[in-house]
Amino acid sequence: FGDSLEDDLKRRDFTMNALAYNPRTGLVDVCGGAEDIARGVVRCVGESDRRFQEDGLRILRALRFASVLGFQIAPETAAAIHRNRALLQYLAAERVQSELTKLLCGPWAASVLRRYPDVIGAVLPEILPMVGFDQRNGHHCYDVWEHTLHAMEKVKPEPELRLTMLLHDIGKPNCFTVDGLGCGHFYGHPAESARMAEAMLGRLRAETALRETVVQLVAWHDRNIPRTRPGVARALGALGERDLRRLLDVKRADNLAQAPAYRFLQGEIDRAECILDQLLVEGACVSL
Questions:
Q1: 167 neighbors 199 (Cβ within 8 angstroms)
Q2: Are 56 and 90 in contact (CB under 8 A)?
Q3: Is the pLDDT of residue 1 over 70?
Q4: What is the pLDDT of residue 12?
Q5: Among 5, 166, 198, 230, who pairs with 1 as Cys (CB 3.0-4.6 Å)?
Q6: Which of 207, 210, 168 is nearest to 191 (CA)?
Q7: Helices (H), ranges, 182-228
Q8: Kind of pairing, strands 26-28 and 41-42?
């Protein structure tokens, strides 16, 4: 680079090359990228709308950086993300699925989804009815969307578990009824959620193994597993050890996102896992 590098950079329409190095003058940071990194800020280079219109996947990538790194999105970039969210509908499903999965597995995923449900809804419109949906049931202290986010925070950052928690109650708005006492119910929502999850993951071109695991866990998430040897053995025979342990993690997270009065169910889940451990130690036969 010559001595006029900084002036040359200032004249360019920036896309990716916001930082450069000159052996004589050192780091050339015209756009303040290093400062943004130090302050934990995600910001588009130049005009945000133009950057997103060049590649709509940058919208999800910005959210992914916020989720994985805990960065804040600059106000002008955040506003452009909301304005341009419809661009996500025109991207290859595989690209969207890859970026969305990384976002969901970030430590700050729930916080990001809480601020940008309309953006996620551009690719998964089925989540939008959950936002603000009052469950009107004593088992719950959150609406369906907040319950989903709190539950998602309680599982390990693995794609199978995070996707399961995102989708486990996706069918609740379709199944909502109110009894004579004004109490809300969601009869049949696990099966409806599993049906919707399969369609959504198929639309995203998720790998078959991932899709099948998530759909199965969603279908089983509210199923009662008797805390007895036969009850746990039947579940073990149906799911196998790996997915039964995942299911117990899902049940723990689901319960931790319910009203505090029902947290005693954590002990019941622990009992089921203890029985599972005993069956495995004994090498018990659980299937023909």
A1: no
A2: yes
A3: no
A4: 44
A5: 5
A6: 168
A7: 189-203, 208-220
A8: unpaired
